[in-house]
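Model it.
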Amino acid sequence: MMHMTFYWGRTVTVLFDSWKTESWLGYALTLITCFLVSAFYQYLEVWRFRLILLGAGAGGGVAANTSGIDAPLLHRKVAGKYSAARIAGTLMFGVNSGLGYMLMLAVMSFNGGVFLAIVLGLTVGYLVFRSGNEEATVIVDNPCACA
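Modeled.
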């Protein structure tokens, strides 16, 4: 029977019937895996934001202003609708969405340790990979792991 409220204990099934923990070692490895996957999600988000910037024309994708007037909102975009950067960004969005939903489903195991490991992993991943990246923060800063 699946738990419908938070519980604490080493016995947990995460995502698949074959991913069950019965021992403290298995439970600890599961928590470490959840933590690392959560931090990796934040790392992938950094790369996705970089691809968004590249596809939008920032950092060399915008045509040079030849009129002598500095009007950044009037620059013509060079990158096409189906440029390599946009396609890569779209693929990265799909990977990130899938990973985010997997994290959400892992939290839905309702195990307190899994929940804390994922939230802590997202937090540490944000601190390490995203907190110093103001460009990406301006674009989108969504704390939801599945967005």
